[in-house]
Design goal:
- This protein is of the alpha+beta class.
- The chain has 2 domains: 12-145, 3-Layer(aba) Sandwich (Creatine Amidinohydrolase, Chain A, domain 1), CATH 3.40.350; 150-367, Creatinase/methionine aminopeptidase superfamily (Creatine Amidinohydrolase), CATH 3.90.230.10.
- The chain is 36% helix and 21% strand.
- The protein contains 11 helices and 19 strands.
- It has a 6-stranded mixed β-sheet with strand order 4-3-2-1-5-6, sandwiched between helices. Strands 7-10-11 form a 3-stranded antiparallel β-sheet. Strands 8-9-12 form a 3-stranded antiparallel β-sheet, with helices on one face.
- The two termini are 38 Å apart.
Length: 377
């Protein structure tokens, strides 16, 4: 049962907003196969499903495993009257989709180019009748997902709160690392378990715990490396709540405060991230946020050691539009959720990354991830 303290998800208007974009995409109907997009349009969260949307109707198809779940979730999402459900084996589903396309008089059918393989596109074309043809479509549903409604933001805030609480719960494990022989993998497992206890349905992605030289690898996978005093430790993780994700990174110095070059790295990344957070506002180009963060690190002499974009959108996927990098083209708008996560990585020595997830507001931004940025652990 959905928490009454959370705003409801506004699913029903999404189908109409998508229909308004079909003409722009130059298609009569869109076959939606990306599961996050399926969930966004229908409320259905199963592992197999397709949504077909045209000007005259919408259809969800899935198999018998999800007969009850699909009906319940579509009803809960408030789209039962706007979305037909067809249950059956693969051929039954294909027949239902073919009938829906025929009823819509669709002659140009969009396929999600980022999600459909070459082999799958050939199979989909077998459904088309007469002069109907399939065409690649990119980002049509994803563009709708960029601006979150109140219900989505509430769920992301809950996911972030769960993650904040979990890190606070497990951080005391570091107090006695000189005797405990605690490893990266053990700390990651404890953090994942704490998120589950706190109400997460899953991790938002594979938790990163990286100590010492491993912290210079931005996407390091936790190993049996022992956490030892006098080293940095990067913790990058998030929770998933009712499908929506959080994303946060904190870097700690084990056993006290950093010294020497690493102390300077911590200071520079902290400054870069703070300036990036300040730059997140409605009307600002996503690329400009990246530039603000990058300039701080470049002036410190580590331009080549900031080896990824400043951030990305978050929602039903952990990485979604918009891109906050030099390749980003989006202009930030209220309701858009992005991360700000600059980092500096010195091979053989260590790395520092600090990340928060923020909601763009009318007058700036609101930070969802609130755990302290104190470095001593």
């Amino acid at each position: 049962m959905t928490d009454p303290m959370l705003a409801p998800l506004e699913v029903a208007p999404r189908l109409e907003r998508l229909r308004a974009r079909l003409e722009e995409a130059k298609v009569d109907a869109l076959i939606v196969t990306n599961l996050a997009n399926v969930r966004y349009l229908s409320g259905f969260s199963g592992s197999a499903g397709v949504v077909v949307v045209s000007a005259s109707g919408a259809l969800l198809t899935t198999d018998g495993r999800y007969r009850t779940q699909s009906a319940e979730q579509v009803e809960a999402a408030g789209v039962a009257g706007a979305l037909e459900i067809a249950i059956g084996n693969a051929e039954d589903q294909r027949s239902a989709i073919r009938a829906a396309l025929r009823a819509a008089g669709a002659t140009t059918v969009g396929l999600e180019a980022e999600d459909v393989t070459w082999a799958a596109s050939r199979r989909w074309r077998e459904l088309f009748e007469g002069d109907a043809q399939g065409v690649p479509v990119t980002g049509t549903v994803e563009a709708l997902r960029e601006v979150k409604d109140a219900g989505e933001l509430d769920r992301m805030a809950r996911a972030a709160s769960i993650a904040d609480g979990a890190l606070g719960e497990v951080l005391p494990m570091l107090a006695d690392i000189t005797r405990s022989a605690l490893t990266e993998a053990q700390f990651a497992l404890a953090l994942d378990t704490a998120m589950r206890r706190g109400g997460a349905e899953d991790r938002a992605f594979d938790t990163i715990v990286a100590v010492g030289p491993n912290s210079a690898k931005p996407h390091h996978q936790p190993t049996e490396e022992v956490l030892a005093p006098g080293h940095p430790m990067v913790v990058d993780f998030g929770a998933t709540f009712e499908g929506y994700r959080s994303d946060m990174t904190r870097t700690f110095w084990l056993g006290g405060e950093p010294t020497g070059e690493m102390a300077r790295v911590f200071a520079v990344v902290r400054d870069s991230q703070a300036r990036g957070v300040e730059a997140v506002k409605a009307g600002v180009a996503a690329k400009a946020v990246d530039t603000v963060c990058r300039d701080v690190i470049e002036r410190a002499g580590w331009a080549e050691r900031f080896e990824h974009g400043t951030g990305h959108g978050v929602g039903l996927d952990i990485h979604e539009a918009p891109t906050v990098s030099q390749q980003g083209t989006a202009i930030l708008a209220p309701g858009v959720v992005v991360t700000v996560e600059p980092g500096v990585y010195l091979p053989g020595l260590g790395g520092v990354r600090i990340e928060d997830t923020l909601v763009v507001t009318e007058d700036g931004s609101r930070t969802l991830t609130r755990f302290t940025k104190d470095v001593a652990a």
